[in-house]
Amino acid sequence: MTPTPLTGAVMAPLYGDMQATALLSEEAVAAHMVAFEIALARATEAAGLTESGSADAIAAALDGFDADLTGLGQGTASAGVPVPALVAQLRGACGDAGQALHWGATSQDVVDTATAMALRDVLDLYAGRISVLIDALQQQSEAFGDVVMGGRTRSQVATPITFGMRIATWAAPLIALEAELPALKARIARVQFGGAAGNNLAVAPHGADIAATLASELGLGAAVQWHGDRSAVMAVGAWVGRLTAALAKMAGDLILMGRSEAAEGKAGKGGGSSTMPQKSNPVASEAIVTLNAYATALNPMLAMAASPAEERDGGRWAMEWFALPQILIAGAAALRHGADLVATLQAFPENMARMLDANGGAIMSEAASFALAAHMPRAEAQTLVKDALKLVNGQGKTLTEALSEIGPDGIDWVQILDPRQAIAPSQAQAKAIFANRTNSLEETK
């Protein structure tokens, strides 16, 4: 047990993600805050509010500047945010030019904009990973496109599908999430500049111009202040929650497929037991399930933070700092494990075939009833199939044998009850799923 399962030395290799953690680290966010202050100096100078040349002097003085994080911590303990302490450090480094720093901004402008920059970088990380993952899923779906297995509904064997189709269904929600990502990134990667109470009173009437220059300098979208509108932050958390849910569906299916009594497939390296030599535990799949639960549980905290009191609210705002980085790291870790699972995916067709043959091939009962419905009313057809199943269960016949015995003449039951009949419609379904991705990517170009 550890208070830092996403970042600690013992648990983070399983539940954490080094790249996402680095992008969200205190060092990275502090660097974004410094970048904000430099960009603000340029924006206020361009608006004629600060002395000409001050922005270049500030940029030169802060080239390679590393904030004293301990000092920022002490400042946070006093002010509730690190910005006053940071501005003091920056002014100390800039000398006389430092008087042009932080002109017209409030602490939340600095923190929110730095957060937006960090989120932009993390979403770029996600974009690369999700693209690679979907590519891999499509390759595996095609590779296993003619491997027939028993489809299951409500935990019971239903009708045959292909393993390739099941893999495609894993990809379907990821394809939708990938398509939404550019708009999500544009929604959150916006500059925050509203000043003390959100109306830029200290720099009026230049607030909008300063915000636009800030956005251009920082590579963000220009926007009206969003101190009291946290919907974009909620949208990021919800998107990651949906991502981990999609990955947990895949992981959960793999756990079920790998059960000892089924052994239809597996993925991942597997983990050994401390006492049972025969076991190979689905560690990566289990980690994804855990990470999904964690990200899902944290999202309500973002919802609580989204109703700040009046113009700005320090208490609810801080809830985002507790929840958002953890959600993002959990999502990145789930993606990392998902890629490993897909890369190591294995199927065991002989075990899948055993399930298809179970109970005399009863898995094809639906196909039998529809074939009979061409010769008699459907209700009668279903009754006849039930009678055939009684022979299967009572006399050990196959469904083909039973229907050949009691059904009408002229029906090729060997062909109709062949589970391989599921290959063509399953492949069509998988192809349609990945065609959605092709269409959505073309629309975003």
TrEMBL record:
Residues 360-434 form the Adenylosuccinate lyase C-terminal domain. Pfam families: Lyase_1 (PF00206). It comes from the Bacteria. Transmembrane segments: none annotated. Gene3D superfamilies: Fumarase/aspartase (C-terminal domain) (1.10.40.30), Fumarase/aspartase (Central domain) (1.20.200.10). Belongs to the class-II fumarase/aspartase family. This is 3-carboxy-cis,cis-muconate cycloisomerase. It comes from Donghicola mangrovi.
